[in-house]
Structure formats: structure tokens, C-alpha cells
Amino acid sequence: MNDQIRKFLNEEQDPKAIDKITSKLADLLMKNEEVGYIGVQKKPVTVFPDSIVLTNKRIIICKPKNLGFSMDFVDYNWDTILHTSVNESILGSEFSFTTKTNLTISIDYLPKIQARKIYTFAKEQLDILKNTNSVLADLPLSVEVLAPLEVANPEVNYQEESEPIEELETEEVTNFAEIIPMAQSGYRDEKQFPDVDSVAKENLVSELSQDELFEKLQNYKKLLDNGLILQGEYDALKKEILSKM
Questions:
Q1: CA 237, CA 187: separation in Å to the nearest integer?
Q2: Do 105 and 195 have their domain in common?
Q3: What does the pLDDT look like over 8-53, one tens digit per residue?
Q4: CA atoms of 5 and 66, how far apart (whole Å)
Q5: Are residues 43 and 115 in the same domain?
Q6: Among the three residues 101, 125, 149, which one is the final residue of a domain in this structure?
Q7: How far does CA 46 lie from the centroid of its chain?
Q8: Does position 4 have pLDDT exceeding 60, yes or no?
Q9: pLDDT class for 66, splitting at 50, 70, 90?
Q10: Rounded mean pLDDT, 128-136
Q11: Rounded to an integer, what distance in angstroms lies between the CA atom of residue 20 and that of residue 40?
């Protein structure tokens, strides 16, 4: 049992339940997925308690069956969860979360300290997801969507035999940059083709305070760490923010 899992045993978790769960998690975790917390039921007479595993990507509900020889796993990604809650009582606490499809899932008989830490971890993950989506919404679009061409007169009847097309001599193009003013990265040359939206966004950035600029820079760093933007894009965004500070 590694040190990351061993720390959970300090909060009234059943060592046997933790050991059984962690032995199966090795085959369940996705790439770059890390366990953040594990909570275990503490019922008065239950031999095989249910457990809840929280990772940086999802919530996993673990339910033993067949006298503990097998286990059912049900998971819920963070982007499908609407909100979470904790209700404390004399016999323990109940952690619940509701999905965006109005499905409510609960696990009861949790020790209070476990339920509180589960709730805190869940709130942190939902806040990270919310901030990431907010930053993505603020990023400028790098690809322009062209509207489909409209037919000017759909009632025109075309001739069955097409007229011959006159052939014109063409010259071989050796330098595409001469006819297409586009950078290799896919962005337009702002000096030749200014983007009205980008100019407006630049004015908005210049009006932000130092604290707001620093917070926006932190959000860009989170996007880079989560692999949502490339290093080159982050460097360009960072340079832009620093120029305004």
C-alpha cells in the first residue's frame, strides 16, 4: 500500500476495505488520473461496506457483492455533476451529488470527517472545471467558420449539355505566401487583416486591474497543465498579459 493511500487510514477508514479497493483501482484508473480521496461506510453491522473514490477526473462508487469476492463500480465524470451536499446525523454523514440529468446518488453512514473532506474535494474539482470552462470561453477563435453559399435563383433550369469552357494558361505558384497572407500557425496577419473581435478583446484586457490580469494568467497556466492549450499558445497569452501589467 503506497503512502498516498495509507494517509486515508488516519480518518477511520477500514484498512481491509481500502486495501481491496486500491488493488482493483490499478486497472480502473485512466491516463493522468490520480486518486484524491477514498471514503468508506461505517455501518454498525455491515461486513462489506460501500466505498466512494474521488479522483481528478470522476467520482467512482464501489459496491461489494458475492460476499466481497467481487465488486460493482459506477463512475460519474465531474462535467456531468451539477452540485454536491453533505447531511450530518448521529449515525454518521451522507454525501450526495446530483447530475445534470437530475439523477441523485448518495452514500450514507460515512464518518463525519470523511464526508467533510469528500465534500471539500468535490467542490475544488467543480471549481477547477468551472474556471477552465470560463478561460476557454475567453480564448479567441483561431478558425473561422465560413457560411455555406446560398443559391441565388433555385428555379433556374440548367441545360443538359454544358457549354465548352475556354482553357486558360496558368502559371506555377512557387510561393504561396504571395497569394495567401496566412501564417503557418493558421492565424491571420493582423496587420493586413485586423480582427475586430481581437481588437475588442485587447481593449477589454487593457481595462483589467493588476489582480484580474494575474488571475487570468493563472487560469491560462491551468489550461497548459491540463493539456488544453499548447506551450506556444500559453507563451503568447502570457506575453500579452505581462505587457498589460
A1: 14
A2: no
A3: 566 677 777 778 888 888 788 888 998 888 988 888 776 788 889 9
A4: 25
A5: yes
A6: 125
A7: 37
A8: no
A9: confident
A10: 87
A11: 12
* Pair (101, 30) in one structural domain: yes
pLDDT in tens, 175-217: 544 444 444 444 444 444 444 455 445 555 667 777 788 888 8
- Sign of the Cα pseudo-torsion (20, 24, 29, 32, in order): positive
Give residue 209's identity as a one-letter amino acid code: S
Q: Which amino acid does the sequence have at 67?
A: L
Q: Are 53 and 117 in contact (CB under 8 A)?
A: no
Tell me whether residue 193 is in a domain.
Answer: yes
Say how far apart CA 4 and CA 209 lie, in whole Å: 40
Specify the residue for cell string 469528500: 118
Q: Are residues 197 and 95 in the same domain?
A: no
- CA separation for the pair 135, 229 (Å, rounded): 11
Q: 22: domain range?
A: 3-125
Whether the Cβ atoms of residue 19 and residue 2 lie closer than 8 Å to each other: no
Provide the phi-psi class of 32: left if phi over 0, else alpha when psi is between -120 and 50, else beta: left
Provide the domain count of the chain: 2
